[in-house]
Recover the amino acids of this structure.
């Protein structure tokens, strides 16, 4: 039997967590969804604070400038290859905000 750190027990049959239809975190399934505007970004509440310029890649922080992954205690884990770098930059939560809203056109 395998139990994740958050208490979720893995079931080989009838696995319903994080499938293509329900993308909620396990803590959201157990404790409900947060109100609009207070989206839950990770299964960890509160989420880890990511160092500026880095990404949270699931087992630690990734610095795209050095291409190094360190664990959450900042100990070296590995150097990222091109595939991992591309996946992290495309997929993972980053440690800075970007403006992605409406931009007025220069007319």
């Amino acid at each position: 039997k395998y139990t994740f750190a958050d208490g979720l027990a893995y079931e080989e049959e009838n696995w319903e967590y994080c499938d293509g239809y329900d993308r909620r975190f396990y803590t959201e399934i157990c404790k409900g969804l947060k109100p609009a505007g207070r989206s839950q970004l990770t299964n960890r509440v509160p989420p880890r604070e990511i160092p500026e310029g880095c990404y949270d890649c699931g087992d630690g922080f990734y610095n795209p400038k050095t291409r190094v992954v360190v664990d959450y205690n900042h100990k070296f884990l590995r150097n990222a290859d091109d595939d991992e770098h591309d996946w992290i930059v495309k997929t993972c939560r980053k440690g800075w905000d970007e403006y992605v809203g409406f931009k007025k056109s220069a007319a």
